[in-house]
């Protein structure tokens, strides 16, 4: 049986017009709270090209899954191909990836 940590990481990038006053996407906070109500630990991490290896290690070691909350676009310290490479690396490390929270609700707990 697969061991789960009961943890999910939400990936964002700084900047863009979809952020609230706290710098995060406006719907990320409610996602974190919804996962916590279901007994999961949930965190939000910002992606940056220069930190992608360390971020991938943190997510792979501490989360069962990640939710990509990065809209296509141009952001400082963000290269889409490098971000997608990191997401593929996480998938190879058995971290389930999703672009929406409902895709993760089927994970075992």
Task: Write structural notes for this entry.
The chain is of the alpha/beta class and 109 residues long. It has a single domain, classed as Rossmann fold. The protein contains 3 helices and 4 strands. It has helices at 28-37, 52-62, 80-92; strands spanning 7-12, 41-46, 65-68, 96-98. Helix 2 runs parallel beside helix 3. The model is unreliable at 100-109 (pLDDT under 50).
Could you name the key traits of this structure?
disordered C terminus, single chain, alpha/beta, 4-stranded parallel sheet, 17% strand, 109 residues, Rossmann fold
Q: Which consecutive residue ranges, at least 5 long each, have pLDDT under 50?
A: 100-109
Total domain units: 1
Q: Which term fits the overall shape?
A: flat
The arrangement of helices and strands along the chain is EHEHEHE
Largest sheet: 4 strands, parallel
Mean pLDDT: 82
Instruction: Compute the number of strand runs.
Output: 4
Helix content: 25-40%
- Characterize the quaternary organization of these chains: single chain
CATH class: Alpha Beta
CATH topology: Rossmann fold
Report the structural category.
alpha/beta
Radius of gyration: 13 Å
Describe the SSE topology.
Elements: E1 7-12, H1 28-37, E2 41-46, H2 52-62, E3 65-68, H3 80-92, E4 96-98
Parallel strand pairs: 1-2, 1-3, 3-4
Helix pairs in contact: 2-3
Short description:
This protein is an alpha/beta fold and 109 residues long. It has three helices and four strands; from the N terminus they run βαβαβαβ.
